[in-house]
Amino acid sequence: MNWRKTSQPLMPATTADKQLTPKGAYDIYPFASLGAGNIQCGYASLANWMAGRHIVLIDGYIGNDWEYIGSSLQRELVAAGMIVNVVYTSTFMKPAEEVETLVAPFLGEKGAVWGKRATITLKDLFDENKLLNIQPSAEGITLIVGVGAALTGLKAPVVYIDLPKNELQYRMRAGMANNLGKQQRDDNPETYKRFYFVDWVLLNAHKKQILANIDIVADGQWKDQLTWATHTAVSEGLQFLAKNAFRVRPWFEAGAWGGDWMKENIPGLNKEEVNYAWSFEMIVPENGLVFESDGKLLEVAFDWLMMEHAAEVLGKQDEQRFGIDFPIRFDFLDTFDGGNLSIQCHPRLSYIQEQFGETITQDETYYMLDCRKDAKVYLGFQDDIDPAAFRKALEDSAANNEAIDIEKYVQVHTAHKHDLFLIPNGTVHSSGKDNLVLEISATPYIFTFKMYDWVRLDLNGKPRPINIDHAFKNLDFSRKGAKVQEELISKQTVIAKGGDWQLVHVPTHAEHFYDVHRIEFDSTVNVDTEGKCHVLMLVEGKSVLVETANGFRQRYNYAETFAIPAAAGSYRIINEGDSTAKVVKAFVK
């Protein structure tokens, strides 16, 4: 049975296997140097590091095939002449029915799209008596293998095997990854819901708790081999990124309304995919950071950077506000030759906190990176909106699978390149077809209340969930008529200029905690972080060189997202093209 279900290839394990990206073209596998001699490859090399030790704790993220990992290490150690005892942490977990009872309060009803962030801990899922009374073999080496290995309390080296979130989801779709402590497997939406609201919450808290005790960091995405480095080396790499610049590894997904812009403009994507709806450009819960050493690649979750260097990344003031949660999200919505997004809204702050346990809500904007002539954005209500009549039309449509004239209720606006549409929580909205939207948003990203989906099926031939009740508890019906043009379409102004540059303010809504600038320049421009993290994208031009005050230089190409941490202090952007470069910059107000 295939262990991953996707049309997307695995990230290459080495730069030799990485497709050469033409200069000025978007790179789907960005990496940062970890210095020579710092990344090792293969189970044999990791077994060699373990040799001579009495106990090793092999912890890590859900989705790893722990029996395969344990047997692979055992094989290598036995070949080296060692006696090996392998113990799996799954045998210490509470019975599945007890685990189900513990997690049930955080899952909502069966079939519901959302749950609530778990408040239990990983340790709660284990039989503590079994966990704390492991008897290692008197001879040879004992490997404690699996999620929660470091909870055993044994004084021993800790190897942590990470797994990228996209690969976890590909394994889930192939039926090869299940939820913590679960024997039977639910369908993919239920499994993902439990990942998001329970498993990821528990595992991230666990990783943060054991961080100081981790000796080795490994990447499990290739399954048949590992790349790994010492935690010391990884921490030094993270420290460097936290004071200079970084780009996460993006990943791409098809969808019911997806388009072809990314397929046609981003090298390395599978051209046979039906479409590309999303690119996860920089979404902390989903993306990873890739390091390179001697041509070998190692990916770690973005969380590692925030757990170790949140103050340097965000600045002290924003770190006090957001903690280790990176607050700003960049992603693409591609509808070129595709379809309209659903008519939707996002929860108000109090609603997302009370219902789903999130701390901030899904306040969004649509920055139009590209669009065809006559492309549209749906935003705000018509002046004569009657909420009761609107709800009845939506409910009748959902019940009878019939199309409605949505423009009778929702305004439609012509979209132009570099427009910014403002979507604070509670605002009705949708992107029409033939847009490439750069969605600049607060980090939460799954809390979309769909009201109308154009009477279509998803890529699996099933209706997408409609959430009219949730939506009507959050819709702001005062955002209608002329107020939409006045308050929800950004009025851009030049706020500073020099010889061959200007700074354009692209203001967000009063409810957005982040703001947007666009830097337009012909040659070079200098920027001060002013104690804030800047999330940036080249939105016009071929490529730029970024040089931080520390002397770090890195090229970024058109449509690539990158971040300059607050601790960088200042940076210089050099235009490598022949025409004016335009760089969007988002930052916390």
Q: Give unreliable regions as ranges.
A: none
CA radius of gyration: 25 Å
Q: Beta-strand percentage?
A: 25-35%
What is the CATH class designation of the largest domain?
Alpha Beta
Strand order of the largest sheet: 2-8-7-6-3-5-4
Write down the overall geometry: globular
Protein structure class: alpha+beta
According to CATH, the homologous superfamily of the largest domain is: P-loop containing nucleotide triphosphate hydrolases
What's the β-strand tally? 31
With helices defined by DSSP (H or I, 4 residues minimum), what is the helix count?
14
Kindly give the count of domains.
Answer: 3
The chain-level mean pLDDT equals 97
Largest beta sheet, briefly? 7 strands, mixed
Distance between the termini: 50 Å
Describe how the helices and strands are arranged.
Layout: E1 32-33, E2 40-41, H1 43-50, E3 55-60, H2 66-79, E4 84-88, H3 96-103, H4 128-131, E5 141-145, E6 158-162, H5 165-173, H6 188-210, E7 214-219, E8 227-230, H7 231-242, E9 251-253, H8 261-265, E10 278-282, E11 288-293, E12 296-301, H9 302-314, H10 316-322, E13 328-334, E14 343-345, H11 349-356, E15 364-371, E16 376-381, H12 387-400, E17 410-414, E18 420-423, E19 429-431, E20 435-442, E21 449-452, H13 468-472, H14 482-487, E22 493-497, E23 501-505, E24 514-521, E25 524-528, E26 534-540, E27 543-548, E28 553-557, E29 561-564, E30 570-575, E31 581-588
Parallel strand pairs: 1-11, 3-5, 3-6, 4-5, 6-7
Antiparallel strand pairs: 2-8, 7-8, 9-10, 10-13, 11-12, 13-20, 14-21, 15-18, 15-20, 16-17, 16-19, 22-23, 23-24, 24-31, 25-30, 26-29, 26-31, 27-28, 27-30
Helix pairs in contact: 1-2, 7-9, 9-10
